[in-house]
Amino acid sequence: MSNPPKLSNDCFALPPGVHWTPVDETLASLRERVSVVTGIEPVPTVAAGGRVLAADVVAKRNSPPYANSAVDGYGFAFACLGDGDQALPLAKGRAAAGGPFDGVVPKGKALRILTGAMVPEGIDTIVLEEDVTIEVGVLKFAMGLKKGANVRPKGEDVAVGQAALSAGRILQPQDLGLLAAVGVDTVQVRKRLRVAVLSTGDELRQVGEDIAPHQIYDANRPMLLDLIRRWGMELVDLGHVRDDADLVKQMLTHGAREADVILTSGGASAGDEDHISAALQASGTLNLWRVAIKPGRPLALAMWEGVPVFGLPGNPVAAFVTALIFARPTLLELSGAGWAEPRVMHLPAAFSKNKKPGRREYLRAKMSANGHVEVFKSEGSGRISGLSWAEGLVELEDEGREIAKGDTVRYYPFSEFGL
Questions:
Q1: Helices marked H in 306-395 — which ranges?
Q2: Same domain, 184 and 51
Q3: Same domain, 147 and 171
Q4: Which of 338, 347, 310 is nearest to 326 (CA)?
Q5: What is d(CA 175, CA 291) in angstroms, rounded to the nearest whole number?
Q6: Which of 100, 140, 165, 394 is deepest in the core (most CB within 10 A)?
Q7: DSSP conformational letter for 79
Q8: Domain hosting residue 54, numbered range
Q9: What is the distance between the alpha carbons of residues 410 and 302, in angstroms, rounded to a whole number?
Q10: Residue 125 sits in the same domain as residue 96
Q11: Are residues 186 and 196 in the same domain?
């Protein structure tokens, strides 16, 4: 099948005069400017976990495919019952899952039936075995049942021809069970979004390499690579490139040929050694979105040979936060899964803070045993250990606010970001 059209080269251009963009406006702008870039392919249902449905799936079979028993018990026709205590002679045989009763149950008689068994003709109601006694081939029980008790009707869950799952859904294990139950053996899914990850900077070395006193190990690359894996996308690891304009351009070109989107960290501001920005500026498509956010701020957004480039800050804490807040929903939209907005929890604060106006702030946080939310001991964006300590983020609104212990704050567990 053909792939969707690529994004336009000017899709990230901001209106003239925009200097500091609020978080909500940034998200709205990104959502408006990006669209699906992945093609479609058929995949067997058993291998479709984590993939994005490209089309609605219609049930090929009823679920359940036939009326069946919800319990172990005895079945009969409700019309044969009278008032008060009941006594029905037992018919010969039984109905079991995989072993249906061959014939019609005579009116006025009861048949042994097990959980999951097809309900034979002549039965419309089932009594639990715990509620009966049997004496000399006669079933006895007290009246109190309603017609249809303990019978699962055909198609009660999903009827043939009914939509079982909708396009854009990221298939979970339970979805594969549903698809199998309704007879769907192959689904149309989006091809995995290919995301290239590139780290830049002369100061960086990879863990295991020799390192000089003035250098640091690259924390962003393993962090971003694993984020992409967890989001179900295909990795294109571009590794690390030195602060050399020509090398940066070569890596961007390589990434554009191998991936649908490029995610970089570092070199995205406007300094002398910010070669990502310089290379993208030379392409004529660079837009530095100065976002009113802490940690973070500059997002370099551009197109390189028809492929969107998402430039994250070099600071690991800022790179992680901006990846969750901005990159993830954008990548999901590009992948065909649709824009994802995390669900918020409103919890009492276990901390106090005087928050200044002007920027949206995200604090590394976790929920305590009593349901309050506590924050990391330091807000310093260089304290990467706070990311490992945290189990989510507290979001503080753009406005100024005096937060006292017990005040309600907004908390996003990392699970809302696919972690």
A1: 316-322, 328-335, 385-389
A2: yes
A3: no
A4: 310
A5: 38
A6: 394
A7: G
A8: 42-63+156-190
A9: 32
A10: yes
A11: no
